[in-house]
Amino acid sequence: MKCPICSKDHGPLIRNFNSSTDLSLVETLTSQNENWQSAAGACTRCVDHAQLDQWRANAGPQDPFTDMNPDEYPILSIPRRLAAHSGYTGKGVTICFIDSGFNLHPDLTQPENRILKVFDVRYPEQGLSWDPTHPHNWHGSMTSVVGTGNGWLSEGYYKSLAPDAKVVLIKVMDENGSISREAITNALQWVQNNHQEYGIQIINLSVSGDSSGPYRESPIGLAIEQLVLKGIHVVAAAGNSAEAQLIEPANCPHALTIGGLDDHNTLHPLTHSLYHSTFGETADRTYKPELIAPAIWLPAPILPGTEQQREAEALFAIQNAPKVYKRAVAAKVIQQTKLPHDVIYSPVKVLEEQVAARIKDCKYISGHYQHSDGTSFAAPIVCSIIAQMLEANPDLTPSDVRDLLFRTARNLEGLPEERQGFGVVHPLSAVYHAEEVHNDLPSVFNPIIDYKAASIRFQLKQGEVSSATAIGAFNEWEQPGMALTSEGISTWELAIPLPAPGTYPYKFLINKDQWQGDTRNLYWSPDGFGGRNSLLIVEDN
Fold first, then answer.
1. Regions of the chain where pLDDT drops below 50
2. Which residues contact 100 (CB under 8 A, 6 or more apart)?
3. 180 and 284 in a common domain
4. What is the secondary structure of 220-289 as a DSSP string?
5. DSSP states of 411-475
6. Is 36 within a domain?
7. Cα 161 from Cα 537, distance rounded (Å)
8. Per-residue DSSP letter, 166
9. Cα 120 from Cα 136, distance rounded (Å)
10. SS3 for 481?
11. How many CB atoms lie within 10 A of CB 21?
């Protein structure tokens, strides 16, 4: 399909321009072709060029996207695709990855080894006796580098959002390739016992157990609850099947569960769609995921020293060689590839085509990286955003972080809330808001239920508020609702009598015209109108 802006053949064109929010983008595109109409559409590269022009006009030279050229990148780096804050790198923060196994990847160990501890939870005294190139170590190596890698093998290009964060790595997979509930629970218990010694503030769980039941019946769920109450931020991958059932830890209400975004390896939100991640209502009456983050087209490491890494290096050596030397280079390295050996006698054009096809089939993007997909990699991206937030403001509690991430997320319009939660993470906004937060609210989640006193207390922390009311099933949704009173700068509270046992959807009405959910509440459900209700759950004692 030919793009009416650049006149180049392209895939499906973008046509869903919003008349208000995308006005400046449309003006930029029109300046390139005065006869162009938005209904005619534009290719993703032209939209990316226009987006970059707008960003550059409002950005400083230190911003990671100012030197970008959409015609040059094969796979976007994570900081660039999210236009993240370049001033925070996770310095002073430790992230613990609980996963299948790990390789001590150069992106974590060079030029400084940032790994504080690495061990197999089943054999905690064993140390590093397992084979670093074993296939079981692939998954954890990918998640830890996506979350905290510094791009050492790509000269810094494919770095994470938290390249200065410290790392603790806990292996939970057994020799048969299985991960048990007991192993995950033991790993979480180890963090409970040792988080202060290693400064662990964030846990990434891109693994799963086997239960879909209530979290109080799950040792994993109970362990996560205890960790979060200690102030540790727990992030879990939702899973990769839209048809599957949510299972632990993704279904645990205290875990921040992350679903997937498909940004189509482009910069502009107009191109975004949902990844096929797991979603739905849990046994604890809340919905998961709460947020979505990039889950496809993600740069991730190839395990160093493996057959795949040697092949990738050989293929890119051929591809990058001057045309006159391509066949000579191919003759030297052909044994390291899966290409037919007689291709070195073919015309150079045929050699180039076969090399390019093999690179594409294997998803290689350099001699050391490939692009991968799955919510297993969306979760560590959110961990790295939290690391930036904690660097900006070390006092943030898990309820603070959820509140800021939810309030700054961008909803994908027209797509189901139950699949995206509060929407796409927006790291730049989340970090800016984190800098401004001053903790004058208790570090607990909303609402605060006191069964002995038979009362419930709601709390709201938000700037630029002149009035706030709570409206929900507990007052028959009658407006103007029950007024919250100001308790300090940007702090509002309301206490009500404890209603009968049941589930009560509710929202806040801000400044008499703005409806919003309670972003400090662990429980929510779609409201049927393109938004979210928060849930007050009163149990029968």
1. none
2. 136, 137, 138, 139, 140, 171, 172, 173, 179, 207
3. yes
4. HHHHHHHHHHTT-EEEEE--S-TTSPP-TTTT-TTSEEEEEEE-TT-SSGGG-EE-----EE-TTS-EE-
5. --TTS-HHHHTT-B--HHHHHHHHHH----S-SSPBSEEETTTTEEEEEEE-SS-S-EEEEEGGG
6. no
7. 36
8. E
9. 12
10. coil
11. 11
Cβ neighbours of residue 393 closer than 8 Å, sequence gap 6 or more: 434, 435, 437
Across the chain, how many H-helices and E-strands are there? 14, 22
Q: Are residues 267 and 409 in the same domain?
A: yes
Over residues 223-236, the pLDDT tens digits come to 999 999 999 999 99
What is the sign, positive or negative, of the torsion defined by CA atoms of 224, 226, 229, 232?
negative
- Which helix or strand (DSSP H or E) is residue 536 part of? strand 532-538
Q: Which domain holds residue 310?
A: 305-367
Supply 512's token pair: 């008499």
Whole-number Å distance between alpha carbons of 532 and 511: 18
Kindly report the number of other CB atoms within 10 A of residue 4's CB atom.
17
| Peptide bond connecting 64 to the previous residue in cis, omega within 30 degrees of 0 | no
pLDDT at 237: 98
Instruction: Map tokens 């973008």 to a residue.
Output: 14
DSSP state of 152: G
Pairing of strands 482-483, 200-205: unpaired
Residue tagged 């100001």 (tokens): 486
Same domain? For 267 and 176 the reply is: yes
Q: Are residues 134 and 266 in the same domain?
A: yes
State residue 132's pLDDT score: 67
**Predicted pLDDT at 7:** 87
Whether residue 291 sits in one domain with residue 323: no
Q: For residues 202 and 445, give the distance between their C-alpha atoms in angstroms, rounded to a whole number.
A: 18
* CA atoms of 162 and 148, how far apart (whole Å): 5
b/e 489-521 (16+ beta carbons within 10 angstroms → b): ebbbbbeeebeeeeebbbbbbbeeeeebbbbbb
Contact by Cβ (8 Å): 453, 478: no
Burial label, 177 (beta-carbon count in 10 A; 0-12, 13-18, 19+): exposed
Q: What pLDDT, in 10s, does the model give residues 70-112?
A: 555 578 899 988 988 889 999 999 999 999 999 899 999 999 9
Cβ 239 vs Cβ 276: under 8 Å: no
Per the structure, how many domains does the chain have? Answer: 3
Number of CB atoms found within 10 A of residue 243's CB: 6
- The residue among 432, 410, 493, 337 whose CA lies nearest residue 87 is 432
Indicate whether 196 and 344 sit together in one domain: no
Of 341, 367, 393, the domain-final residue: 367
**CA distances (Å), origin 48, targets 91, 150, 158, 293, 460:** 31, 25, 19, 19, 38
DSSP state of 303: P
pLDDT of residue 8: 83
* 3-state class (DSSP) for residue 176: coil
Residue 50 lies in a domain: no
